[in-house]
Design a protein that fits this description.
Layout (H helix, E strand, L loop, with lengths): L22 E8 L3 H16 L4 H21 L4 E8 L3 E7 L21 H8 L2 E6 L6 E8 L9
Antiparallel strand pairs: 1-2, 2-3, 3-5, 4-5
Helix pairs in contact: 1-2, 2-3
Length: 156
């Protein structure tokens, strides 16, 4: 598994601001189940505009779907914010929620194949991923980086 996976989270020191040209795209959606499909669609459209390889596009779309789903299902957020950054040889996805846990524990009686593997999927397709508290306001940011353009690079 990649460093910073679900079983062994990795602490990463803050990085200096990026000075190189970076393509960015962000959007905000209500924290509702139907927003997951909308997030996938917005990301797919942007990656096509950026001419990202189809295989990478599929992996990034999967990551966005899993991270937005987690924010919707596991927090009592009213909204989620998603940001894509193309840093040349890698794409970074970040999803921010409003940080309050969902109201009360919920007993979920689902078969293992029906859910619960989101972060394992993120770990499988990402070169790195992690989470940190939001810098402004309440909430958490969960991020993932995926290599593209044929190379691995240092994180954004």
């Amino acid at each position: 598994m990649a460093p910073g996976n679900a079983l062994t989270p990795r602490l990463i020191a803050p990085r200096p601001p990026i000075t190189a040209d970076v393509r960015r795209f962000s959007f905000e959606l209500p924290a509702r189940a139907e927003s997951v499909a909308r997030a996938r669609h917005l990301v797919e459209e942007r990656l096509v505009l950026w001419e990202v390889d189809g295989t990478v596009c599929e992996a990034v779309t999967l990551v966005v779907s899993e991270l937005v789903t987690n924010a919707v299902v596991h927090t009592a957020s009213r909204r989620v914010v998603c940001e894509l950054r193309d840093c040349g040889e890698r794409l970074r996805v970040a999803v921010q929620d409003e940080g309050s846990p969902a109201a009360g524990p919920r007993l979920r009686r689902t078969a293992p194949e029906e859910g619960g593997r989101g972060l394992l999927l993120v770990d499988a397709v990402s070169s790195a991923w992690g989470a940190h508290d939001a810098r402004h306001g309440a909430g958490r940011v969960v991020w993932a980086e995926l290599a593209h353009a044929g190379g691995l690079a240092e994180p954004c």
